[in-house]
Amino acid sequence: MGKTKDNASIDYIKLFMSSIKKNLSFALLLWFAGLTVVGVFVVYGAICFKGFCLGYSVASAVATLGAKSGSIFIFSSMLLQNIILIPTIFALSISGIRLYKSIMKDKRRDNIKLEILRHTCFCAIVSVMLFLASFIETYISSNLFMSTINIL
Fold first, then answer.
1. What's the structural domain count of the chain?
2. Model confidence over 80-113: pLDDT tens digits?
3. Is residue 53 part of a domain?
4. CA distance readout (Å), 76 to 10, 45, 69, 114, 136
Protein backbone atom coordinates (compact mmCIF):
# COMPACT_ATOMS: atom_id res chain seq x y z
CA MET A 1 0.00 0.00 0.00
CA GLY A 2 2.78 2.43 0.81
CA LYS A 3 4.14 2.12 -2.72
CA THR A 4 0.80 3.17 -4.21
CA LYS A 5 0.49 6.12 -1.86
CA ASP A 6 4.00 7.34 -2.64
CA ASN A 7 3.71 6.93 -6.40
CA ALA A 8 0.82 9.30 -7.10
CA SER A 9 1.82 10.02 -10.71
CA ILE A 10 -0.08 7.89 -13.19
CA ASP A 11 0.58 7.86 -16.91
CA TYR A 12 -3.05 8.21 -17.96
CA ILE A 13 -2.36 8.03 -21.69
CA LYS A 14 -0.54 4.70 -21.36
CA LEU A 15 -3.25 3.37 -19.05
CA PHE A 16 -5.99 4.53 -21.44
CA MET A 17 -4.29 2.94 -24.45
CA SER A 18 -3.79 -0.30 -22.55
CA SER A 19 -7.44 -0.37 -21.54
CA ILE A 20 -8.60 0.36 -25.10
CA LYS A 21 -6.31 -2.36 -26.44
CA LYS A 22 -7.66 -4.87 -23.94
CA ASN A 23 -11.32 -4.02 -24.55
CA LEU A 24 -11.09 -3.79 -28.33
CA SER A 25 -9.12 -7.03 -28.64
CA PHE A 26 -11.85 -8.78 -26.68
CA ALA A 27 -14.50 -7.17 -28.91
CA LEU A 28 -12.54 -8.22 -32.00
CA LEU A 29 -12.46 -11.78 -30.70
CA LEU A 30 -16.24 -11.74 -30.22
CA TRP A 31 -16.75 -10.17 -33.66
CA PHE A 32 -14.58 -12.74 -35.40
CA ALA A 33 -16.10 -15.61 -33.45
CA GLY A 34 -19.53 -14.47 -34.55
CA LEU A 35 -18.43 -14.76 -38.18
CA THR A 36 -17.36 -18.40 -37.94
CA VAL A 37 -19.48 -21.49 -37.60
CA VAL A 38 -17.66 -22.84 -34.55
CA GLY A 39 -17.40 -19.35 -33.11
CA VAL A 40 -20.49 -19.74 -30.95
CA PHE A 41 -18.50 -21.96 -28.63
CA VAL A 42 -15.73 -19.36 -28.53
CA VAL A 43 -18.30 -16.68 -27.67
CA TYR A 44 -19.71 -18.75 -24.81
CA GLY A 45 -16.20 -19.59 -23.63
CA ALA A 46 -15.10 -15.95 -23.73
CA ILE A 47 -18.13 -14.86 -21.70
CA CYS A 48 -17.51 -17.60 -19.15
CA PHE A 49 -13.85 -16.61 -18.93
CA LYS A 50 -14.67 -12.91 -18.47
CA GLY A 51 -17.29 -13.72 -15.83
CA PHE A 52 -14.91 -16.05 -13.99
CA CYS A 53 -12.13 -13.43 -13.96
CA LEU A 54 -14.44 -10.72 -12.67
CA GLY A 55 -15.97 -12.98 -10.03
CA TYR A 56 -12.57 -14.20 -8.90
CA SER A 57 -11.31 -10.62 -8.62
CA VAL A 58 -14.29 -9.60 -6.50
CA ALA A 59 -13.99 -12.68 -4.28
CA SER A 60 -10.25 -12.17 -3.84
CA ALA A 61 -10.70 -8.53 -2.89
CA VAL A 62 -13.36 -9.36 -0.33
CA ALA A 63 -11.39 -12.31 1.08
CA THR A 64 -8.15 -10.36 1.30
CA LEU A 65 -9.38 -6.98 2.48
CA GLY A 66 -12.48 -8.02 4.39
CA ALA A 67 -16.09 -7.23 3.62
CA LYS A 68 -16.00 -3.47 4.29
CA SER A 69 -12.65 -2.60 2.72
CA GLY A 70 -13.14 -5.12 -0.09
CA SER A 71 -16.50 -3.60 -0.98
CA ILE A 72 -15.02 -0.10 -0.98
CA PHE A 73 -12.19 -1.32 -3.22
CA ILE A 74 -14.62 -3.01 -5.64
CA PHE A 75 -16.94 -0.01 -5.85
CA SER A 76 -14.10 2.45 -6.34
CA SER A 77 -11.99 0.52 -8.81
CA MET A 78 -14.12 -2.02 -10.67
CA LEU A 79 -17.81 -1.18 -10.62
CA LEU A 80 -18.13 1.89 -12.83
CA GLN A 81 -16.50 0.56 -15.98
CA ASN A 82 -18.11 -2.86 -15.59
CA ILE A 83 -21.57 -1.28 -15.54
CA ILE A 84 -20.89 -0.38 -19.18
CA LEU A 85 -18.54 -3.22 -20.10
CA ILE A 86 -20.71 -6.19 -19.11
CA PRO A 87 -23.84 -5.20 -21.10
CA THR A 88 -21.61 -4.30 -24.04
CA ILE A 89 -19.98 -7.72 -24.02
CA PHE A 90 -23.37 -9.40 -23.77
CA ALA A 91 -24.65 -7.31 -26.70
CA LEU A 92 -21.66 -8.29 -28.82
CA SER A 93 -22.12 -11.93 -27.91
CA ILE A 94 -25.82 -11.90 -28.72
CA SER A 95 -25.10 -10.23 -32.05
CA GLY A 96 -22.58 -12.95 -32.91
CA ILE A 97 -24.95 -15.73 -31.91
CA ARG A 98 -27.77 -14.15 -33.94
CA LEU A 99 -25.43 -13.95 -36.93
CA TYR A 100 -24.57 -17.62 -36.56
CA LYS A 101 -28.23 -18.61 -36.32
CA SER A 102 -29.22 -16.50 -39.33
CA ILE A 103 -26.41 -18.02 -41.41
CA MET A 104 -27.49 -21.52 -40.44
CA LYS A 105 -31.16 -20.79 -41.14
CA ASP A 106 -30.80 -18.98 -44.47
CA LYS A 107 -27.79 -19.88 -46.59
CA ARG A 108 -28.40 -17.46 -49.46
CA ARG A 109 -25.31 -15.44 -50.25
CA ASP A 110 -26.98 -12.02 -50.29
CA ASN A 111 -28.59 -12.56 -46.90
CA ILE A 112 -25.33 -13.73 -45.38
CA LYS A 113 -23.55 -10.60 -46.64
CA LEU A 114 -26.29 -8.40 -45.21
CA GLU A 115 -26.17 -10.14 -41.83
CA ILE A 116 -22.37 -9.87 -41.69
CA LEU A 117 -22.63 -6.17 -42.53
CA ARG A 118 -25.22 -5.68 -39.76
CA HIS A 119 -23.04 -7.54 -37.27
CA THR A 120 -19.98 -5.50 -38.24
CA CYS A 121 -21.84 -2.18 -38.01
CA PHE A 122 -23.28 -3.14 -34.64
CA CYS A 123 -19.81 -4.07 -33.38
CA ALA A 124 -18.44 -0.74 -34.59
CA ILE A 125 -21.19 1.15 -32.79
CA VAL A 126 -20.73 -0.87 -29.62
CA SER A 127 -16.99 -0.17 -29.74
CA VAL A 128 -17.84 3.41 -28.82
CA MET A 129 -19.21 2.07 -25.55
CA LEU A 130 -15.94 0.21 -25.04
CA PHE A 131 -14.05 3.51 -25.46
CA LEU A 132 -16.34 5.01 -22.83
CA ALA A 133 -15.66 2.10 -20.48
CA SER A 134 -11.92 2.56 -21.03
CA PHE A 135 -12.23 6.28 -20.33
CA ILE A 136 -14.11 5.60 -17.10
CA GLU A 137 -11.61 2.94 -16.08
CA THR A 138 -8.66 5.23 -16.73
CA TYR A 139 -9.73 8.64 -15.54
CA ILE A 140 -12.65 8.19 -13.15
CA SER A 141 -12.05 4.82 -11.47
CA SER A 142 -8.33 5.35 -11.00
CA ASN A 143 -8.87 8.76 -9.41
CA LEU A 144 -11.71 7.41 -7.28
CA PHE A 145 -9.51 4.54 -6.19
CA MET A 146 -6.62 6.85 -5.34
CA SER A 147 -8.93 9.02 -3.24
CA THR A 148 -10.36 6.04 -1.37
CA ILE A 149 -7.01 4.34 -0.78
CA ASN A 150 -6.64 6.37 2.41
CA ILE A 151 -9.85 4.78 3.71
CA LEU A 152 -8.48 1.29 3.19
1. 1
2. 899 999 999 999 999 988 988 888 887 777 788 8
3. yes
4. 17, 28, 10, 42, 11
Q: What is the mean pLDDT of the chain?
A: 87
CA distance 148 to 143: 9
**Does any domain span residue 92?**
yes
36: alpha, beta or left, given left = phi > 0 and alpha = psi -120 to 50?
beta
pTM score: 0.81
The residue type found at 133 is: A
Residue 6 domain-assigned?
no
- DSSP per-residue codes, 113-150: HHHHHHHHHHHHHHHHHHHHHHHIIIIIIHHHHHHHTT
d(CA 77, CA 19): 14
Please tell me the distance from the alpha carbon of residue 81 to that of residue 65, in angstroms, as a whole number: 21
- 108's CB contacts (< 8 A; 6+ apart) are none
Asked if residue 43 lies in contact with residue 96, where contact means CB atoms within 8 angstroms, the answer is yes
Give pLDDT, residue 76.
86
